[in-house]
């Protein structure tokens, strides 16, 4: 089996007395789409913040291709191919869709802005994502589903090695989800990208992901294939069909 490209071991994050993450270990390998699910407040976004370098963990470490990157900045990680989308989308609303992709490449490469290569690559990625009709539209004017696809396209604008997708299917239509699944699968299977995907649409996760990790109250509750996770009684009780709960608090 291929070894992990991105690995987080023993991660702990506290917000005052709230343990958002407690001794969480998770890995993602090149070529796989791994799902990360769990109730509201389980710690999924906090874990993404740790993996993308936005938040330094209180305990544990993150390695990328065998190198300890726990103290590396988000900029370093993005430039080395660790890309992320956000639950609350973060497009440059006053730029066109194409320019969103060009700017991302300019910034990550450090080359002269707007090079022809970056424009051509932007056009190709937008075509691949089924967004060619939106090239000249202003990103801020797009409906949620299209904006999510553009955010994904921007993460792909120069080839990623790891994709961290935070609720990419939220607010999308069935057709957009179908396209999203095709693009994500292509990135994993053809481009050998390691994909970790947070999503509340469990049907989408179960269909797309070869492996699923379940977080609950800041801990890994279960891990396995979609079928294994779906039939796990603890997962059923904590998440599948259960009401949201608050994260564990030590009263401190
Ligand atoms: N900046 C913060 N300050 C204080 N508490 C926080 C902060 N960010 C997250 N938390 C708390 O940490 C816990 C984990 O939150 P997180 O957003 O990571 O969960 P999540 O699984 O992503 O939830 P959701 O599915 O609703 O997005 C929650 O109890 C949350 O209230």
Structural commentary:
By secondary structure, the chain is α/β, with parallel strands linked by helices. It has a domain at 6-89 and 160-238: P-loop containing nucleotide triphosphate hydrolases (Rossmann fold), CATH 3.40.50. 35% of the residues lie in helices and 23% in strands. The protein has 9 helices and 10 strands. The chain has a 6-stranded mixed beta sheet with strand order 6-7-8-3-9-10, sandwiched between helices. Helix 3 packs across helix 4. The N and C termini lie far apart (43 Å). The relative contact order is 0.19. It binds adenosine-5'-triphosphate. Adenosine-5'-triphosphate binds at residues 15, 18, 20, 38, 40-46, 87, 246-247.
